Amino acid sequence: MSEVTLDTRPVVREAPPDTRGPTSPQSLTALWLGIGSIAAVLGGTIALTLNYGLSPRVLTPACIDLQLTPEIRGALGVCNFVEAIRSSAETAVLLIGIALGVVAMAFGWSIRGRMDTFRRREQAITGAILGVQGVLIALVILAFREGRPDLFAKNFLNFTVIGPYFPGPFFSAIKNTIILAFVGEAGGIVIGLLLAVLSLSKRRAARAPARAYINFFRGTPLIWQLATGYFVLLLGFGIRPNTFFLAMGIFALNTAAYAAEVFRAGIQSIERGQIEAARSLGMTYFQAMRFAVVPQAVRRVIPPLMNEFVILIKDTALVVVLGLSASQYELFAWARAGQSDTFNATFFTAAALGYLVVTLPLIRLVNAVERRLRSGLVGIAGATA
Amino acid sequence: MSEIRSAPMPPPDKEPLIRLESVHKWFGDNHVLRGIDVSLEPGEVEVIIGPSGGGKSTLLRCANLLERPTLGKVWFMNEDITDIRCDLNAVRTKMGMVFQQFNLFPHMTALGNITVALEKVLRLNDAEARDRAMEQLRHVGLEHKADSYPGQLSGGQQQRVAIARALAMTPRLMLFDEVTSALDPELVGEVLGVMRQLAEEGMTMMVVTHEMGFAREVGTWMVFVDGGVIAERGRPKEMFANPQTDRLRQFFSRVL
């Protein structure tokens, strides 16, 4: 036994050779170069525009040469914007941004492999990405200056012309847009659910008309449906429709086709076992659908249906083909009326902002609901119970 | 026409609760059941064993016509339920079924899972349905989980709720389709315990299972289904002790 002795000498292990190459400490430099590029391009442009806009000025001869005369409403504002964007300071800002961006791209990308932590690698790569963005934006602005930014600004960015049409008519237009889209979507959901159940029938006689309806409304342009729907009522049925209500009806019929496909996918996504369990308890097919399948399917299709709603909000613009009375104007009709009164297209820019005011919160809501639904069935059940 | 529809079977000595009579099932070209005859008297437990793909589940699903037999008849409570004029929804209230994947309704609580069919199919009022459901939850030892959603229950608890859901309809026959196969091993016992208790209370049951211990102790009869036919039928203990066919011997050598 005595020959068994413990070797108590300290174990000396040789460290393996470091084959990773030198690490570079410059990740933050790359990041700041990228941020600097973006800041120069965006911040510089905004600062210059504000400076020209807010400091007391008069119309420059260059502006008057461009037919921006003092009689034109908002001429000074447009002139300030044009002067700012064409100033040599803006040129300098853009060139600085491009230079910083190119350096950030080259430097950040070249050192990314030699970072010793993920955090630093991300800083280097982010710097390069921001550099790319800074350069691209600067190039776009440079190219934009080569055209006629003066005419563009006069026609699309002259918000003073909107004055008489704001805020009353504008918000009334937003309200009408929402009413058209909401009624259309609500009607579409009701008809669509019915169509979905029919299109899932095992009987061809029940399925075929539903499929034909869905294919027709998905296969023809909405603008055609609106225009033709008007004449079908007027000439075919001898009814002169109120265009606003006709539009609601056509939107509902059109949305129904899309909602039907969404519902069908939702119903088909419910496991077969659910309907089998319900049938094995003695439920009829329709009871099984009503109590077991459809309630689950409806939860699953909430996000895609809300997406359809966002799409419909934008498609309401198509009612301009029908012609509305002034109190019925939705955003696009409002913009078109304003434009034809003033010969200025800034109304369309304002309309775009109006659409965004409605759609951006909705898009956020869809994303939140989707996250919530993904987090598991318990949450859904708990949310509505 | 009358020659084509075969005459009703002469009444057997003892009235069977359910009788499958030369049942065949094709799925497309796939001949899954090739002439199955099974008959079960009240209070008996028939255990169905066999290799996977042999047609065990299809056999069970033909019993309550979740799958309609391509050929053959199914008699239940002296009624030909394969007759197209038979009201299957009424028949199924007398025939409970429990599935491998539980198939609880995930948007309803345990209690709601049980009461929905009581209210919508049996037309009980809220209070009656609730009382009956709570009684069944007590039966399976889960009355404290009445307000939980399926997603909040373990697999074993979900399966016991599924059993309670079927029992609440006061069925004459219970069908169990591999009800422990999707469970973690430590949860199998609680479900088998409920089924054992049910058998002791005199429930007539058809049980497709891979739990050989359960089959031996609880089964009145055992059938070995292989290749779409009943390869062997008998008392479980005798079949385990003395399998008559090579196929059953091979099967036992693989699973025991």
**Mean pLDDT rating of chain A:** 86
Uncertain segments of chain B = 1-7
- Number of strand elements of chain A: 0
Which strand order does the major sheet of chain B show? 6-7-8-3-9-10
Structural class of chain B: alpha/beta
Helix content of chain A: over 70%
Q: What is the arithmetic mean of pLDDT of chain B?
A: 92
Cα distance spanning the termini of chain A: 75 Å
Of all chain pairs, the largest interface belongs to: A-B, 26 and 31 residues
The low-confidence parts of chain A are: 378-385
Characterize the main sheet of chain A: none
Q: How many separate helices of chain B?
A: 9
Instruction: Report the radius of gyration of chain B as a whole number of Å.
Output: 19 Å
Strand content of chain B: 15-25%
Count all strands of chain B and give the number.
10
Overall geometric form of chain A? flat
* H/E series of chain A: HHHHHHHHHHHHHHH
H/E order of the elements of chain B?
EEEHEEHEHHHEHEHEEHH
What's the oligomerization state? heterodimer
Strands, helices and their partners?
The complex is a heterodimer of chains A (385) and B (256).
Chain A lengths: L26 H28 L6 H5 L9 H12 L1 H24 L6 H29 L2 H8 L11 H32 L4 H16 L2 H15 L6 H26 L3 H9 L4 H31 L15 H12 L3 H29 L2 H8 L1
Chain B lengths: L17 E10 L2 E11 L4 E5 L6 H8 L7 E6 L2 E2 L7 H5 L2 E4 L11 H11 L5 H14 L15 H13 L5 E5 L7 H16 L3 E5 L3 H7 L2 E6 L2 E6 L1 H6 L4 H10 L1
Parallel strand pairs in B: 3-8, 3-9, 6-7, 7-8
Antiparallel strand pairs in B: 1-2, 1-4, 4-5, 9-10
